[in-house]
């Protein structure tokens, strides 16, 4: 129960911290016509975030950092709109709740990491099919290999942490 409480506490703390960071975001309507695809989407821009994301459960909003280049904007907006249409903003928290319950199982950690990566790759694929490959697509193969390596490395780290926490609990320290 201590592990589950820590996981849920981490989730709540992260959510509150992110909510505070996006509080000063400025709403902006973005209307673009790109590769025969028209956008008219309200997004929120902020200097307090590093990467774009969809945030919220009841009324999810698209947040974009101020530093986004103009040529990347259609891809980013479409990517986040794909998350919205697929309701990934509901799937990921449910996955984290399951992870919180089964925090001691390294296979659940691996499944959660793969769920998150799959969600992103599916949205990327849909955007590329819809808008075509971006100009920076030359490094796509390297990016895929790099992503796979990061996933494997992250799974290993999480499995070690989970195993250490489980052995600590069995020893009676928690």
Describe this structure in words.
By secondary structure, the chain is α+β, with helices and mostly antiparallel strands. The chain has helices at 2-21, 73-86, 88-101, 106-131, 140-170, and strands spanning 26-34, 37-46, 53-55, 61-65. It has a four-stranded mixed beta sheet, with helices on one face. Helix 2 crosses helix 4 and helix 4 runs antiparallel to helix 5 (140-170). The longest helix is centred in the last third of the chain and has 31 residues, at 140-170. The radius of gyration is 18 Å and the shape is globular. The N and C termini lie close together (9 Å). Residues 138-146 have low confidence and may be disordered.
Mean pLDDT level = 80
Order of helices and strands: HEEEEHHHH
Q: What is the strand arrangement across the widest sheet?
A: 1-2-4-3
Radius of gyration: 18 Å
State the share of residues found in helices, binned by percent.
55-70%
Low-confidence stretches: 138-146
> How many beta strands in the DSSP annotation?
4
Strand content: 15-25%
Helix-strand makeup class: alpha+beta
Largest sheet: 4 strands, mixed
How far apart are the first and last residues' alpha carbons, in Å?
A: 9 Å
Indicate the overall shape.
globular
Count of individual helical segments: 5
Please name the defining characteristics of this protein.
single chain; 174 residues; alpha+beta; four-stranded mixed beta sheet; 5 helices
Give me a quick take on this structure.
The protein has 174 residues and is α+β, with helices and mostly antiparallel strands. It is built from 5 helices and 4 strands; from the N terminus they run αββββαααα. Helices cover 60% and strands 16% of the residues.
């Amino acid at each position: 129960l201590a592990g589950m409480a820590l996981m849920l506490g981490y989730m709540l703390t992260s959510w509150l911290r992110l909510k505070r960071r996006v509080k000063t975001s400025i709403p902006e309507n973005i209307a673009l016509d790109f590769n025969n695809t028209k956008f008219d989407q309200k997004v929120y821009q902020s200097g307090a975030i590093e990467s774009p994301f969809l945030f919220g459960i009841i009324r999810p909003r698209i947040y974009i950092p101020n530093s986004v280049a103009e040529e990347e904007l259609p891809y980013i907006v479409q990517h986040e709109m794909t998350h919205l249409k697929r309701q990934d903003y509901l799937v990921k928290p449910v996955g984290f709740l399951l992870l919180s319950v089964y925090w001691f199982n390294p296979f659940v950690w691996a499944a959660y990491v793969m769920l998150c990566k799959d969600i992103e790759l599916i949205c990327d694929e849909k955007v590329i099919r819809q808008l075509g490959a971006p100009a920076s697509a030359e490094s796509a193969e390297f990016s895929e290999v790099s992503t796979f390596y990061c996933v494997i490395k992250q799974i290993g780290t999480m499995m070690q942490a989970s195993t250490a926490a489980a052995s600590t609990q069995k020893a009676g320290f928690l």
